[in-house]
């Protein structure tokens, strides 16, 4: 099961896993209902999306899932974590931690380890965590804030809508602009972020926490 706030990311990952022979029970759900959905479906493995792994209470859904369905292996899917974030995930009962921008082969390896009852976390994540603990940076670089400052408010809204899976028509309707203008905004966002596709832009925004900083946008207007 793949559960994430951002439908585009969740569905893309679910599709990739299906192509590799996995049976995916669900693709997306709001964070508030994630635990209940996982508990009701009881998958072997759950990839549970989070955007701010160091925030207090962020792993409460993991605690609830493990309390109600201890047999479910929960893999946290999130941005580059701090050492505290990794520790909090495992303390809550998670079987592993997978970065949002991990290759599908890495995600699959984590799933196999989790199913076998092993801790699933990439060696480079552990190395980075230990390095940060031993040599803490006085002022760590905030990539999400840096990217946010590169975009105009309109472009930030476009990026959030792209991450929510809206196509050009929905973006235009939701923002009250012409489709051609919406396409131009999307292309500018991709250029400024240095990515080649909407999926890459959404993954980068989620990994750096930019989406949380940007906040929600009004829903797109219906047809």
From TrEMBL:
Source organism per UniProt: Streptomyces griseorubiginosus
GO molecular function: DNA binding
GO BP field: phosphorelay signal transduction system; regulation of DNA-templated transcription
Keyword Transcription regulation: yes
Domain HTH luxR-type: 144-209
Boundaries of every Response regulatory domain copy: 1-115
InterPro entries on file: CheY-like_superfamily (IPR011006), Sig_transdc_resp-reg_C-effctor (IPR016032), Sig_transdc_resp-reg_receiver (IPR001789), Tscrpt_reg_LuxR_C (IPR000792)
Keyword Cell membrane listed: no
Keywords: DNA-binding, Transcription, Transcription regulation
CDD domains tied to this protein: LuxR_C_like (cd06170)
Protein name: Transcriptional regulator
Domain of life: Bacteria
Pfam assignment, any one: GerE
PROSITE patterns: HTH_LUXR_2, RESPONSE_REGULATORY
Lineage start: Bacteria, Bacillati, Actinomycetota, Actinomycetes, Kitasatosporales
